[in-house]
Fold each of these.
Amino acid sequence: MCGIVGYIGDREAQNILMKSLSRLEYRGYDSAGLAIIKGKKMRLAKKKGKLSVLVADLKANPLEGSTGIGHTRWSTHGVPSDTNAHPHLDCKGKIAVAHNGIIENYLELKEKLQKEGHKFISETDTEVIPHLIEKFYSGDIAEAVRRAVKVLRGSYAIAVIHRDEPLKLVGARCDSPLIVGIGCGENFLASDVPAVLDHTKEVIYLENHELVVLTKEHITIKDFEGRRIERKPSKINWDISQAEKGGYKHFMLKEIYEQAHIINNILDERCKKGSISFHELEISDSELEKIKRIAIVACGTAYHAGLTGKYMLEEYAKVPCWVDVSSEFRYRDPLVDKETLMIVVSQSGETADTLAALREAKRHGAKVLAICNVLGSSIARESDGVIYTHAGPEIAVASTKAYTAQLAIFYLLTLYLAKLRKTAAPAKLGALLKELKRIPALMGELLEEYRPEYNLLAAYAEGFKKYYHEKHNKTFFLYLARNINYPNALEGALKLKEIAYISAEGYPAGEMKHGPIALIDENPWVVCIAVKSRTYDKMVSNIQEIKARSGIVIAIATEGDKEILHHNINYLVEIPKAEELFSPLLVAIPLQLLAYYVARAFGYDIDQPRNLAKSVTVE
Ligand code: F6R
C-alpha cells in the first residue's frame, strides 16, 4: 500500500522518480506526487488520480533538480485529493516526506504539534512526520529524522529531504518495506525492487528500525539509537523485462500465461533425481518430524492456497491442519505451541495481518515456515524458515501466478513431509511426484487451448455481459466445488469480485441445500467445478438441482467427459485429465481467465482495480 521512491545523483530527478513510481503503481494509484530540490528551492507537484494525471501536470510545469522523493498513494487517512497526496511538508516548506504505512498515534501528536504552533493542511496521518522533523531539526536532517521516528507509533517507510541539505536523502523503516538501490555516483530509495531495476541490480534491504542516509556517493545505515550498521548488498537475479507486459494487453494476462513455465521451474529446481529439496529452509527434518499439527495462516488468494494445502497435507502427510485468515488469527487466543508448525503464505511477504499473525505464533513458541514470493521481504526474514515460490514479480493486483506457485510448493511440501513421516508408501509418493511433474505440460496445453486471440472464455464473458444488461444487472455468480477444488471456488469468486466488480460467492457444493439454493432462479450464473474425482457424482447432482431451478451453468469438466453433456449445462470448459489431487492447478486457469474476460468485457481497469492495492501493509 503506497509506493515511495527517492533519488540523489547528478541526473534530473523528475523522470527517474516518475519511471520508478510507474513500477510501483501496483501499490496504490489514487494520487501521486513529487518533491524535488534545486539549489535552495524545493518544488512540489501532487495530483489526485493515477500517475498519468501527474505526468500531464509535470509536462506543463516540470520540476528541475537532482535530489527528490516521490509517492503513489492508496488512501488510509483522508480522501484522495491533491492536498492529501504526498509528499507532505513542514510549516516552512523546507522538509518533504513521502510515507507508506499508518501512524497510529498521529492524532495525539497532531494535537501536541498544533498547540506548539504547527499548521496542518491535510487530513492525513503522514503530515505529523514533517512537522515532528521540523521540531527536532537543528542543522542535521538525519538526526532530526532519527528523533522523530522515536516518537512515532505504527508502521512506516519514509523518504525525507530538506531544502537546506540538498545533498542528502534520508529513509527510515518500521514494518513497511524500504530498499536502497546502489548506483554509480547516484543512489535510490524505494518500496520495492522493480522501482530501481532500470538503474541497478544491487540493493540493500533495510531492516526494521533502521535509518539510511544517502548522498550520491555514500550510503550510511544506522539503527534508531544511532549505531552504525554494516550490510552487504544483495544481487537481484531477475530482469526488469519480467516486470513489463511483454506484448500482453495486461499484466494479469501475462501472469496467467506464465504459469506453466513457473510451475515447471519450481518442480525442476526442487526435485532432483526423484527427491525433493528445500535448500533455503532452515527448519531441520528432525524438527519437522516432531510437529503435531500445522496451522496455516494467510489472507485472500494466499489463504485459498493454504486451504488447498490442508486437503493434501492431511490426506498424505497425516498431520492435523487448520487454516485461518490472518486478521482473525491475530486477535484470538490461538492454540499454537512449540509442537505446531505455522505456515504463513504471502506473495508480497509484507501483508500486515500475516506478519502480525506470524509474530503472535512465534510468541506462543511455534516454528514458523513462510511460503513467500518476494525475496528478503519482512515475512521471509522474520520466519524460522522460508520456501520461496520464485514466481517472479507479480504486478497485476489480482494474484494469479503466485497462487499456482503457492499450490506447487504445498504439493512438494506434502510429499516431502509424507516421506519424512513415513505416512505414505514410497512407491505411492514416487507415482504422485511423477504425475505432478506432468502438470506443467498440461497447464501449457490448457493455456494454448485458451490462447488470447481465440478464447472461448472471452465469448462466455461477452454472453454474460449481454445477459447482465438484459436482467437489469440482477445477475451474479456462484462458484461451487467439492473437496480439494472447493478453495478454487472461493478463489474464482474472489477473482471475479476484485476485477469485474460482480457479486460472486464460492461455496462447497454440499452446502447449497443449507441455504444458498434459495438464490437459484434464472439470474445467477453458476460455475460448477465438476472434474473427474471421488465426488464427481455428487457435483453432477448439484448441477441437476441448479438446472431444475433454471440456473445458468458453466461446467468445468475433464476433457472427454461425455456424461456432463447430458445435464443440459449452458457452457462447458474442459481441462486435461489429471489426478484429482493435482487438478486445482489446472482448474485455476479457466477461473482466472473467466474473471479476466468478464472484467475486460465491461471495460474495467484490470491491473489496477478500484480500492485495492497489491501489497496490504496496513491492517
Ligand atoms: C487477490 C489478492 C489478495 C492477496 C492478499 C494477500 O487477488 O491478490 O487477496 O492474495 O492481499 O497478499 P499476500 O499474498 O501478498 O500476503
Amino acid sequence: MSQECVFCKIIAGDIPATLLYEDEDVLAFNDISPQAPTHLLVIPRKHIAGPAALTDADQSLIGKLIKKGTELAAEVGLDDGYRLVMNNGEKAGQTVFHLHLHVLGGRVLTWPPG
Ligand code: 5GP
Ligand code: ZN
C-alpha cells in the first residue's frame, strides 16, 4: 500500500469506485474518465508502480490480470473487439503509478494510437 496512491485508496475503500469484480488478487472498476463507451480498469491489490516494475514473482499475477480483463470484456458484451492497454511511464501517458490494465471497447478503435 502506498499512502499517496489513488488506486491503493480505492482498494482500501477510501475513494469510491464502481467495482465490477474483486478477489484476493485483483479488482476491476469503471474508469472515472472513460475514453470509450466501455472503459474498465483491472488492477492488482499489490502496489506495483507499472509494467516495468514487475518481477518474476509477479508472472502469475500479471497473467491473471490479463485473463480477468478478457473475461470481463466478454461479460460486458465486447464480443466484436476491444483493446487491452498498459501505459508505462509518463511519456506513454501513464498518470497513475499503480499497475493497471485498461479494457476499452464499444466503439471502433483506431490504430496506431496517439
Ligand atoms: P493511465 O493514464 O495511468 O494509463 O491510466 C490511469 C487511469 O485511471 C485514467 O484512465 C484515469 O481516468 C483513471 N483514474 C484516475 N483516477 C481515478 C479514480 O479516482 N477513479 C477511477 N475510477 N479512475 C481513475
Ligand atoms: Zn497503489
Amino acid sequence: MNQTIYCDHAATTHLKEEVRDFMNQYEQDSYGNPSSLHPIGKKAKDLLIQARQICADCLQASPDELHFTSGGTESIHLALFGAIKANPKKKKIISSPIEHSAVYNTLKYLESKDYQIHWLKPNAEGQISSEELSEALDDNTALVTLMSANNEMGALQKVGEIAQICRTHEILFHTDAVQAAGKIPVDLSEAKVDLLSISGHKFYGPKGTGLLYKRKESKVARLSFGGNQEGGFRSGTENVLGWLGLAKALSLACSKLSQESQRLQEMQSVLMSALANLPAFVLNGPSKLEERLPGNLNYSIRGVSGDQAVLQMAFRGICVSSGSACSEGKIDPSRVILALNPSEPWRAGSSIRISLGALNHADQLDRILAALKSLVR
Ligand code: PLP
C-alpha cells in the first residue's frame, strides 16, 4: 500500500518533532499565569519573555513590537480594525481582491459600513503595481493592506517597495505575512511595514497561535480591554506554551530558510517543467520561480473541476487542495484565480494547488506527476 503524500502545506503543517520536544520540555514549567507575582507565575513570565525575544531575533524587530495572538485571523483583525479606529476621519482603505478571506471578508464588511475600499487589480500573474498604489493614495486613506505572499497561487508582492511608498505618504501599511513567514525572508529592520500578521501553524508550529508586529511609532488603537496583557494591545491570559512553540518553529524555519527554499524550488521546478508539456495544465500565478512562494504550484486543468481533481488525487493518496482551504467544502470558483484571469472564468473553477513542504522529497515527484497526468486521461 502506497503511503499518503501530503502536498497541502499552505493549508496547514504538522507540528515538527523539534517543536513538540521543545514544548514538552517546558510543559511543566509554563502553566503559571505570567501576571502572578509568585515563582510559578514568574517562571511563566520568563518563558514568555524568552518566546518574544526568539521571535524578535528572527524578524529583526524589537520584542515590545510583537504581540502574540490566537492566529493569523486575529492578528489581521487587530491590525485592520485597530488602524481604522485610530484614524476615524479617514474612510478609505486600499487593498486587492486576491487577499485571504481573513482580510477580504473584513474589507467587504467595512465596505458595507461606509468605508470606501479601493481594490487594486493584480496583473495576470498576480502582482500588484506599485504605480497604481501610488496613484490611489490620498488624504482620506486610513490604511493599505496587501499580502506578502498569496496563499493560492503563491505570487510574492514587492513588500519593501509598497511599504516605502506608504511610509513616504505617512499612511499605515499592514501586510498579511501568514504564508510568507518562515518561507521567505521577513526582515522588519529593513521593510517599512507598520503592521504584519503571522500564524504559527503555517511553519510547523502549533495551531491557534499567531503574532502581530506593530511598529512602535504607528498609530493603531487597541480593541480588547481586560487585563492589559501583550503590552495592553491584546488582553487575555497568555498561551505561554503555544507561543513558545510558535517561537521555536519560527526560529527553526528562519535558520533553515535558504536551504529549505532551495530544496522546495528544485522540486517545484521539476513539476513545473514536466507540466509545461501537458496542454491541459494551465499555470496560475507567476511563471518565474523567484516570484512564487517556494513549493507552491497552482494549475487550472481543462475539463476537470477543482473539487473533482482534489478527490481524484486523494484517491491516489495525494493530498492537494482546490484554492484556499478556508473555502474547501464549497463549490464556489476561486475569486483569486478569477481576479487574475477575468476573461477565462473556467480557470477559477478548475484550479488545484499543490503546496510542497517539509513532508515532501524528490522521490515522491514521479508519483505526484503520474497522479496529475491521470486526471486528464
Ligand atoms: N492569511 C493567509 C494568507 C492565510 O493563508 C491564512 C490561512 O490559511 C490566514 C490568513 C488565516 O490564518 P489562521 O488560520 O491562523 O487564522
